[in-house]
Amino acid sequence: MKQPGAGFAPAHTVSAADRSVAEAVQAGVIMQTIDDLAYVGRHIELGGERLLNFGCCSYLGLDQRVELKRAAVDAIERYGTQFSCSRAYLQLPLYPELENVVGEMTDGLVLVAPSTTLAHIAALPVLVEKGDAVLIDQFAHASLHTAVALLRANTVEPFRHNRFDQLEAKIVRLSEKHRRVWLVCDGLYSMHGDFAPMDKIADLLARHPALHAYIDDAHSTSWTGEDGRGHALAQLSDRTKVVVALGFAKAFAVGGAALVFSNEEDRQRVRRCGGPMLFSGPLQPPLLGAALASAKLHVQPEFSLLQRALVSRIDRTVALGKELGIPFVSTDRTPIFFVRFGPSAATLAAVNSMRRDGVYSCASVFPAVPQNQAGVRLTISMHNTMTDIEHMMKSLAREVAAHGITGESSDTLKAVSAGDIAPATVETGSS
Predict the structure, then answer these.
(1) Cβ atoms of residues 388 and 44 within 8 Å
(2) Which strands, in side-by-side order, build the sheet including 374-379?
(3) 36 pLDDT exceeds 70?
(4) What span, in angstroms and rounded, lies between the C-alpha atoms of 243 and 232?
(5) What proportion of the chain, given as a percentage, has pLDDT over 70?
């Protein structure tokens, strides 16, 4: 059976999404253009207002590193602004060099892709063979649902978010009829900031020979795991039946993505047969140059100090949340925080009120989250000082109190997963 939603975009879903997004645009909280001033990360300028920036995903602040900027310029000087040739024919030498360094980061076999979305579209139709079955988390990133929707010859079933008790029954049932069953999920979920339980995934992989896993770990790339390899690769000791997609457009601070394989045969099959690997444009010289510089930073011994500095900011946010009574949906130690306000109108009002306090935050409304489960999403980065975080949290606490948001709000994610909210209302997350 097919998952309704991102892959097929039925007319009623498009109409509801259009209304929801248009409402947020009219409220002046999304689809905005920053003022034409120098951007250094800590603040953004919008309509002449200078706001503390709690909406970016450059978690480690590498977007402002001199090494990355110089590498981008050097690549332009050497190769031009673009190398306009399909990688199927020719590639810049920066490609294999980048894949080698990311391989050193991850202890894996690496294939660079133009984006995480195109990585999924390249890999999944090649890896998932005719007759295989796919189980996809209902909250998996929209790009995964889009890629899975291409698997029209396969059995595809969604499962409730992180409900591994229900998942195992599905694995057993599908394994009786299918040679392989693929678990498709995120490593770190981009809306609520909760990790996938890699210990449970590892246990399922060990006990079910037919089970394989494909994991989008874009949001945990760089800021966590040894050498920035991310949550999944750090936690899974046996990767024999696992493929992980890392994102370069978040904490890695450039653009593009990387697929990490456990064997060269799968890597080469995706390289030779994955549609975007053959027919999409390549990463251009400045992005490749900056990506290589970023990868080289990751394998330096001092890189872990930067990761720890971010985690100290995350821990301060979690502690303040408890102190101020802010009901985050998840309190996993990640740089993504979400408070559910419910109706879109309440969320839009809260975001605009925080803006008047000098804080930029993100309004997450349908289709990024389920209908009537809108909320304020905040991201912590190395651009934020501890003082900035304290100011933001006090502003958020005022909104939580003003709207009467209680600790019960944090149980909604569990309710969705348990089935108390109908699956038809649940849409995939986005970043």
Answers:
(1) no
(2) 336-342, 374-379, 362-364
(3) yes
(4) 10
(5) 91
